[in-house]
Write a structure and sequence with these properties.
Rossmann fold, alpha/beta, five-stranded parallel sheet, homotrimer, about 325 residues
Chain lengths: ~325, ~325, ~325
């Protein structure tokens, strides 16, 4: 394994094997597995879980890491090809990233969607341009329309809890004060489909996921035996649901138009997850969210603080899931399993 | 020992035992004592000594650490209970801190006073709300009205220099261009009282420490055999003093009112410590300050650069003092003393 | 070796010996050479290569490091002697740096030129004031008019590529949207002269390097058998050149006057390095730049992406070159060469 950029690059069995390695490392720590190995972490955008769990993951495997945050302590980095660099960015990723790769044994890069041109973002234009100049193992720490580390941790959470493969998994839009990216909903719908679940995307008008994202998830479902549908009707979606996974994202009908998006969501304040949402769900329906979450805007306090929530387990699982990825990318020893 | 939040949680003998461990570690390094242990450091506010000495302390004991700075590279974190999070903060400490704790073996948190409501700050409302959601060993890196790591380092400095237990210790207000918190004066007056010293708080009108802080220090003095008094008269305070500990803090008569505070301190420019302050002090009276210090506003150059100053020794002592705390919180081995 | 502040502090042979150690460490890693050693890194200005390569260098030698960025997570630090500190800076370097030095085994400091007073900057006034209060091994991570780590890495690059000692080395001014410091051109002209090369400084009117910098380089050339000349004529300079080293710097005729500098460089847009510059150069003339570089302002894409460019090799060489410096400063063992 040389890159971890998208769960879709792996078969269902390969993902389950990664999760199995993650579970193994939880029970049988390997504090020297990555001794002497160095991970460079480049964050074009804020982070809490990714920032801390990758550093900790390297430490727990005996390796180390360094963090670069363009524009904060280091230069702003230009990503556009052919740019005449007379603006704010002092350095281009075509120099910056190969240099960092030359110091490290692997790189991780976080670069959110620009949020202006949907096709540009769906094509992962910026991330692919960066990935093309890195000749070391590379990890996607969240790109325009993907977040494979989150998806892997979420999948592990479902395995840890023995959620049936065919259980009903509802991915619901939730409200937010601002436009947010498509990366997590795109990764989540694909992950649940690839796992073989009965996936329903619940979202208001104007917030349909792009066809490219839905089609990719449906292709995964076709292989795994799952299904992917979508609806605007909450009652239909939640009927018999085993998992409600909430996430905020921007209007795809008004991509790049923050004012139109704001006008649309002004009437959507009831898209804040509350206990009443679960009336027709399975009795032990659990609540998932990738975090960070806006309390009492996207999700009510009583859900986050109540027994349905498994958001902290998801967040914790970032650590072992990523340790498995790092182990596969960087360990030179034979697996001790 | 599972938490290090306040020197008042420990008896005088327990504090002296921590200091003894710190002195031991200086002479007998234990570079593997915390091998594999990871400390998460969360800084809501700026830091120099705490930021560097905790990282170094973990390194010198064979462990490692990571730093999270809300709002700089990571999300702003909300601390208010029940908040409707439609503002700047993307995440609540009720999620953020348990997540970080789940990755680490211990957390340290710095969160200065809000400086708006004195009772809110005196009650350590924000810090206690955060501490309540952390289920790992926890260190107070400076809260609204406490700074136990500074107090422990200062106490060690007094021990290292063999300052007599009953010596006169003057905590004096000093000027500053802005309102600053009560954490260090509160921790300092308590530390000196708990050590059993003759403590005098010297401050201008309007800058009396709150009764809650003075009463807590007096209770400590009652147990240790020390005393705590206060005065606005510099000559009285400094008469026979062995230690002058200067610190800036905001007006408690005008708490949360920066304009009234500024008007009050406009006439207090002579509260900049100079050699003349020491005319009636003990001949070898030493000068202490927790740093950072505003030269020639709070303290004159000649004091900081002269033989009375032991501020660098205090700052250095942050390292061994905190190494003792970390050793107690995280070492699983038998003490090698 | 106790300080690494200026290549001019070392003989040509001593520099070559450092480079030899760097080359040795590339082939024969010493992952425990600096076990237990801690480097403190203080960055008053942005960095990418220095920030990452020093952290990685310590890791690869078994040591560790911490990073302090005044004004970002830590206090702004005052550097002026005798300042009345009632402005933005909460702490003076006279306290801050000795404190950090007391925690670490060595410090590195980056502090760019103020860019207001040429004589103040040429005298390294600020850096020298800081160096004077640090009693541990110290590394110059770029000061007002020096960047010895870059110079050492560049020299190593010339050795790695077997560039003849007497080859023609052209240091050319290049355009930039803003005024930038003299540190790299000053270090580069001296490095190439000290190596014994035929050095030509090519720059437009108004951008002559100060006599102090040129004289220092000429003194080095006198010892090494090299030469240093300057010209405004590109064709003359490039005739037979083996190396073109481009760098942006501010007008010395208008030092501290950004408006006059901008007016001057408005007509200098052809000082963007292109293939046509190399018409009369040696056939395999290579292109060097310290990075970061403004693409299509200072250097055209086709040069940076083409076969002449060795900028990534230069940047990579920061790592082994600095590992040699760290080894000399901090290793207590006998060299294993």
């Amino acid at each position: 394994m040389n890159r971890f950029l998208d769960l879709a690059d792996f078969s269902r069995e390969e993902v389950l094997d990664l999760i199995s390695l993650a579970q193994h490392l939880e029970k049988h720590p390997e504090p020297q597995a990555l001794a002497g190995k160095i991970l460079g972490l480049v964050f074009f955008n804020p982070s809490l879980r990714t920032l801390s769990s990758f550093q900790v993951g390297m430490m727990r495997l005996g390796g180390s890491s360094f963090v670069i945050t363009p524009g904060q302590g280091t230069w702003q980095l230009e990503t556009r090809t052919g740019a005449v660099m007379n603006g704010g960015a002092a350095e281009h990723v075509r120099e910056g990233l190969p240099v960092l790769a030359s110091y490290a044994d692997a790189l991780g890069i976080r670069a959110f969607a620009e949020g202006k041109d949907l096709q540009y973002d769906l094509a992962e234009t910026a991330f692919k341009a960066m990935a093309s100049v890195v000749d070391k193992p590379l990890i996607n720490l969240e790109s325009a329309v993907n977040h494979p580390c989150q998806a892997l941790a979420d999948w592990k959470t479902l395995e840890d809890r023995h959620v049936p493969q065919r259980a009903k998994f509802v991915l619901s839009w939730a409200n937010h004060p601002r436009v947010t990216p498509l990366a997590v909903p795109a990764a989540t719908v694909h992950m649940a489909a690839q796992r073989g679940m009965e996936v329903v995307v619940l979202r208001p008008e104007g917030y349909a996921l792009p066809p490219e994202i839905m089609d990719k998830a449906r292709a995964a479902a076709a292989t795994s035996g799952g299904s992917v549908t979508e609806t605007t009707d909450r009652a239909t979606a939640m009927q018999g649901a085993h998992i409600l996974y909430a996430k905020e994202w921007g209007s795809t009908a008004h991509y790049g138009d923050a004012a139109a998006d704001a006008a649309l969501r002004a009437n959507l304040s009831d898209w804040c997850v509350r206990e009443s949402w679960f009336d027709t769900a399975a009795a032990d329906c659990k609540f998932m969210h990738c975090l960070p979450v806006r309390r009492n805007v996207a999700v009510a306090d009583d859900i986050l603080d109540g027994p349905r929530s498994i958001v902290l387990q998801e967040a914790y699982n970032r650590l072992p899931a990523q340790m498995a990825v790092l182990h596969r990318l960087l360990s030179t020893g034979v697996s001790q399993r």
